Amino acid sequence: MQSAENQSEIKLTGDEFHHASKVMRHRTGDKIYFTNGQGSIFLAEIIAGSSNSFTLSLLNEFKYENRFKRIHLCLPLLKNQDRFEFAIEKSVELGITSFICFVSERTVSRSKKIERWNKIAFAAMKQSLRSYAPQFQFYESVELISKLEGEKIILEQKANKNLNEIRLNPDINYYFILGPEGGFSENELKLFNENESYSLTTNRLRTETAAVFCASIISSKILSR
């Protein structure tokens, strides 16, 4: 798809055209919404079509602030890739735009598939009509995350404070760090102080479930302020 910036008409081709025509079954005359992943959502009308493209007439542009720009969800690599990708997909749908994928001492899988994660995240962004494309970083250890500037929030089942109690400062970067399948090692936990530990529930959750639960709480807090 061409850039919509400073244009009145754009061409929809490739995968975007296939999705619009074959999956969504759009036809000439339909009005559709789409995002550029850079803060804008556009309303457009399909004014012409061919076997491999649509021509869109732009009707309106809606610009949005990224209210999640200081929220970073830190996900440990999981042995089951489907579960890892589920965590990414649903977190994006809930508004998360920054992911730090990391290896811990007890990580089983070390498969780094940023291109694949980007594809899943981009599809989730379009499906949920989010206006900002998610970004990914990869860290080789928990220690590297502990050195980042901002508030580090360790999500631990046995923590004394519940994540619902947290108050988010819009001027501070927050790193929400999910534990790996085998849990954090003692050495890793020593990198953070006790005040940085929060629980989601008293029950034991799979990492991917905890990620979506965490994203849901964060989204609720940000959108209600």
Question: What's the structural blueprint in terms of helices and strands?
Answer:
Blueprint: E1 9-12, H1 14-23, E2 31-35, E3 40-49, E4 54-63, E5 71-76, H2 81-93, E6 98-102, H3 114-127, E7 135-139, H4 142-146, E8 151-155, E9 161-162, E10 174-178, H5 186-189, E11 197-199, H6 207-223
Walk me through this protein's architecture.
With 225 residues, this protein is an alpha/beta fold. It has 2 domains: 9-63, Beta Barrel (Ribosomal Protein L25, Chain P); 71-223, 3-Layer(aba) Sandwich (Alpha/beta knot). It contains 6 helices and 11 strands. It has helices at 14-23, 81-93, 114-127, 142-146, 186-189, 207-223, and strands at residues 9-12, 31-35, 40-49, 54-63, 71-76, 98-102, 135-139, 151-155, 161-162, 174-178, 197-199. The protein has a 7-stranded parallel sheet. β3 and β4 (54-63) form a beta hairpin. α2 (81-93) packs parallel to α3 (114-127) and α2 (81-93) packs parallel to α6.
